[in-house]
Amino acid sequence: MEDNQYTKDTTPTPSAETTMHGSIWGSGPRGLSYLGCPKQSCQLNVYDYLADIPGNTETTDLVEVQFKNTRKGFYHNSNNLPLEKGDVVAVEASPGHDIGTVTLTGKLVLLQMKRTPPKNPEDIKRIYRKVRPVDMEKYEEAKAREHETMIRSRQIAKDLGLEMKIGDVEYQGDGNKAIFYYIADGRVDFRQLIKVLAEAFHVRIEMKQIGARQEAGRIGGFGPCGRELCCTTWMRNFVSVGTGAARYQDLSLNPQKLAGQCAKLKCCMNYEVDQYVEASRRLPSREVPLETIDGTFYYFKADILSNMITFSTDKRIAANLTTITAERAKEIIAMNKEGKKPDALDNTEKAAPAKPIDLAAQEDLTRFDSARKKKKKKKKRPQESGEGGS
Known about the structure:
Blueprint: H1 16-20, E1 62-66, E2 72-76, E3 88-92, E4 97-105, H2 107-115, E5 127-130, H3 133-144, H4 146-159, E6 165-171, E7 177-183, H5 191-201, E8 204-209, H6 212-219, H7 230-233, H8 243-248, H9 255-258, H10 273-280, E9 290-291, E10 296-303, E11 308-312, E12 322-325, H11 326-337, H12 359-362, H13 369-378, H14 382-385
Parallel strand pairs: 7-8
Antiparallel strand pairs: 1-2, 1-4, 3-4, 3-5, 6-7, 9-10, 10-11, 11-12
Helix pairs in contact: 4-5
């Protein structure tokens, strides 16, 4: 087997639990570690490529734990539990405990903390234990009430006349607390709402405001590229996206095409804008026309990455379009400054158009006749041999 492929064990068919944790995949030096990619939520998934390194978990006692959708947190493994990615654990909460899935252990947790540092590192809570059947029963009961709670809370907010939208509800693992994620354009006074919700659901209420991009990441979905949304799979920090990114890339300023599922400008427009800005600096100014003996040419469009510019003889419409390189355009601008005009915009010699090929003239049409005559001499047809018999 090749070095860059998985190495599969040849043991008998494992149980469903063993298969879920990926134990059928070898972790030798030539394969990828199964400890780094067990079955879990696809949202904000991280491959722990240091999972099978000896002493990795001893680097730090910090562990990254993921909860519903994209919510994550860092916790101390103060009890020195043998944790691996994919283990379901009970962690400290206020009040009670919460249930989450381990996503990272060891040295990579420290790198993740640099990307998304906690507000107060001294307040990092600890992991109690691995989940027990009793914990999972309470957890499933709490999760089963989330959708109904969200629908009812939306109606309560509407009755109170609050300008807000409750996008998601997340119950704590022990069912003693519920987090209500809401979207609002302005400031919302939800003190009365908290009282009504506490009386209706008999749990501790926490209101958390999120943006439209965070809501799309929590809900999930697929983009026009055919892949899962970036805010669902790997993005945690969102940068503002402006229409300038579309202008630099010569994209059509169509709101339906530029907006994502969150109704905001697509985050992916920022991925290549730096390359376009750098490449556009090699192009001449769009405002400078090119003077030639044939006439005056004006900027029409440009292919920034290929360094090609198309000029037109009319400022407003496409007329007599000619495409040249940016170097040729700079050369003509320099000639115009000296009072000179080139003969034509494009100085490349155009190849003469190829003449159409007459396939019938390539071969003699009678080239098959000689072969037929030879066959007739060798063997006569049955009808010809029977002529004149009667």
